[in-house]
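dumping this here so i dont lose it
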């Protein structure tokens, strides 16, 4: 069972801890329809049996070893065009945590919101928003963070223990993530989107370095130059032209 000792104003004050659950994002979405949830409610499970990933993928996490949880937010102060700022703040919160826990490692945010440590993925973030014409009514922020798992990790994945050789108490890591998310969420709520965008750009993987990509027209060398306010990724190609990509339109090769 999970407990949160976080020193927060609202995130994690309502905590639903489940021994097993299909998907914490799905569970929270179902709960939001039928029950009154407080902003900041967290659903967490020891054993997620049907975790949802981006692009319709699944998310596997060894039971009892990692964090799999979702946070319920009501960011009505954001317009639909500002949705990507939620990806930014959650990425920044995890970036800060990973920098603190793995100080010697290279930590980056891989667009749009994957956290990479030493070139391997350590966190998956799946943010599902309900929007109307004017604002974001509800946001379910799902996070899978590899903490103590060292077996059965994909070649391309890692965990905090694999990097630092230290086994962590999951409740402590959860409290730290939640405090970091609240910190950036409050920054966003008090209209600091410019600073948030700047901090996000500084931590972007492959920013300002030549790398190899593939889009619908084929493979090419390019340089990430940053993101638009709405999250569109800008890559300069060899001819000097700026190409713009929505989520799923570009693949990072190598
Ligand atoms: C990705 O594909 O990188 C995103 C993975 C997101 C996984 C988390 S685990 C907790 C939450 N519940 C889910 O079903 N998915 C997210």
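and the seq i came up w/
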């Amino acid at each position: 069972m999970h407990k949160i000792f976080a020193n927060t104003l609202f995130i994690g004050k309502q905590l639903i801890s489940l021994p097993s659950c299909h998907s914490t994002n799905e569970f929270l979405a179902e709960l939001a329809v039928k029950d009154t949830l407080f902003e900041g409610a967290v659903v967490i499970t020891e054993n997620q049996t049907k975790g949802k990933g981006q692009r319709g993928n699944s998310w596997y996490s060894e039971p009892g070893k990692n964090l799999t949880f979702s946070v319920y937010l009501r960011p009505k102060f954001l317009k639909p065009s500002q949705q990507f700022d939620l990806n930014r703040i959650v990425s920044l919160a995890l970036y800060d945590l990973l920098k603190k826990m793995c100080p010697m490692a290279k930590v980056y945010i891989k667009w749009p919101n994957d956290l990479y440590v030493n070139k391997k993925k350590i966190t998956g973030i799946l943010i599902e928003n309900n929007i109307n014409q004017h604002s974001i009514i509800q946001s379910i922020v799902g996070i899978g963070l590899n903490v103590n798992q060292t077996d059965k990790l994909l070649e391309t994945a890692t965990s905090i223990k694999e990097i630092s050789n230290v086994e962590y108490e999951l409740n402590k890591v959860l409290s730290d993530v939640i405090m970091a998310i609240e910190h950036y969420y409050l920054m966003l709520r008090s209209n600091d989107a410019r600073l948030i965008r700047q901090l996000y750009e500084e931590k972007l993987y492959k920013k300002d370095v030549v790398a190899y990509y593939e889009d619908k027209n084929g493979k090419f060398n390019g340089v990430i130059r940053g993101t638009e306010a709405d999250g569109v990724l800008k890559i300069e190609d060899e001819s000097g032209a700026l190409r713009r990509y929505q989520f799923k339109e570009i693949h990072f090769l190598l």
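The pocket of biotin is lined by residues 23-25, 48, 51-54, 57, 59, 68-70, 114, 124-126, 142-144 (CB under 6 Å).
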